[in-house]
Amino acid sequence: MNYLKMNDEKLLPVVLELNTLLADYHMYYQKLRNFHWNILGKNFFELHGKFEELYNDARSKIDEIAERVLTLRYHPISRYSDYIQIASIKEVSPLKTDEEMVSELINDHTKLLVQMRVIISHAQNAGDEGTLDMMGSYIRELEKFSWMLSAWNKETSEQLDTSMIKSH
After folding, report:
1. Against a cut of 0.90, is the pTM above it?
2. CATH C-level class of 8-152
3. What CA–CA distance (Å, rounded) separates 43 from 30?
């Protein structure tokens, strides 16, 4: 029974892209775990906790994405060999400095955001409001995480764009 009342031909690209995002999130999750386990140095406590927060968020999103695919009446991909093959996020050595780890995660966020926007385009075409809502909230949260990591990785002498601030 098609309880969704959506065109399957238009929905298939949404599902394919959701499965790609699922693969990306699995790779991102494992990278976060590796960084969480292997962080060293003066920023250990701060980043160890932040990486745990991020991987817990990623774990929840993995489940939500898979359940969205199921809601759309398809099977989510579930083999690591498939994730490795289709994900844009790739494995890296966990033996990095704190700054390299944060830069790596910011780059991964860019890839995740690009994939989410691809999904939005297909979901709009399919009239898939549920996926649109989901991706909108994911984008908002990931942009905030990216801003925080980016701020952490800046020198204290660096400034944001001040063109909107009136000087007196």
Report:
1. yes
2. mainly alpha
3. 20
